[in-house]
Amino acid sequence: MLPIAIGADDAAIELKNAIVAYLSQREIPFLDYTAERTTGGEIYPDIAYQVAQAIKAEKHQRGILLCGTGIGMSIVANKVPGIRAAQCHDTYSAQRARKSNDAQIITLGARVIGVELAKTIVDAWLASEFEGGGSAPKVARIGYYEQAGGPG
Question: How does strand 105-109 pair with strand 85-87?
Answer without folding.
Answer: parallel
